[in-house]
Automatic annotation (TrEMBL):
Binds 2 magnesium or manganese ions per subunit. It comes from Indibacter alkaliphilus (strain CCUG 57479 / KCTC 22604 / LW1). Its main location: cytoplasm. Mg(2+) 1 binds at D277, E291. The gene is ddl. This is D-alanine--D-alanine ligase.
Amino acid sequence: MKKKIALITGGYTGEHVVSLKSAAVVEKTIDTSLYDVFKILIYPNDWHFLSPEGGKIPVDLNDFSILVNDQKITFDGVFNILHGSPGEDGKLAGYFDMLGLPYTTCDALTSAITMNKGYTKSIVKDIDELYVARSLQLFKNSEENREKILKDLRLPLFIKPNSGGSSIGMSKVKDPNELKDALDKAFAEDKQVLVEEFVSGREFSIGVYAAKGKTTVLPATEIVSSKEFFDFEAKYSPGVTEEITPGRMSEEEVSRVNRIIEQVYSRLNCKGAVRIDYFLEHETGKFYFIEINTVPGQTETSLISQQVRAIGMEVRDFYNELIEEMFI
C-alpha cells in the first residue's frame, strides 16, 4: 500500500510565495507510484487541503487529518517545504513531534536555533577551518545601538533580520548615513537584527543531506551576481545572477569545504536536506560561514535541484531518499 504524504506549503511570512513555487515542483516531481501526496496549505487560522473540485477542506488539528468524500485521511509522514514560519522555525516540527508524525526536515530544536543567524554562528564558530565575520546582534533599534555599530564594526556592513529568509529586509551599508534606514528596514521584518562586517570573497551555496546511513555533500554552486549582494531580486529574478554548478574551486578548496560542511551538519544535528551559504575570502581563501537554510527551495532552478542533477541523480530519486529517511 502506498504511503500517504502531506506536502505542506504556504506560511505566515513573505516567503510563502517561494514556498508555493517549491511545492508545485515537488508535487509534480514526487514519485506517485510510491506515495499518495496531499498538498496542505498552512496560513494563519487557515489550514486546508484543496479538493480536486477546488473546495477547501479544513485540517483537523487534533490529529492533522482531513475528511475527503466522508473518508478520514491521516498521513504516514510530512514533506515539509514551508519556508519561514512556522515550517522552518521549529513550530510545526514541535506540533508534529507531539502527534508522533515524522517529517523530512530538522527537529524542533535545530530548526529554532538555525532560524536565528546569530545563535547559529555562536554554535559553529569554533569548528576547525571555519570563520565568521565580526558582528553585533541587536534587540533594539536605538540611537545608542547605531553609535555602538559605528564604534565596534568597520564599514561596509550587512544589515539583516536575524530570523528572516530569502534576503528580505537585508541591506548593505557603505556610508554611516545609510545605517538608520537599513536598520529600520531590518527591524520591520524581525525583532532581532544581525549587523556584520563585509567579507570580500567569492560566494557559494552548498547542499548537504543524510540518507541511507551516510551524509552526502553536494557540489557547491558559485553565485555571481550583477547586484552588490545576493538579495531577493538576485535570488528570484531571471538574469540577475549567474549560478555556476559545480562552483569554481580547487581540489583543496573542495576537500576543505566538504570537511567543514559535514561538521556544520553534524554540530547542528541537522536532518534531511539543508543548504549552507559561505564565502571564500579573496585574499586568504578562508571559509566564512554566512547562514544555513533548513528548508531550502525546491523549484526547478533552485540550487539544491541543480546540485542533485550535477551528481547524476534524478530529483525524484532525491525526494524518495528524503522521504524514506524520515521513517528510519
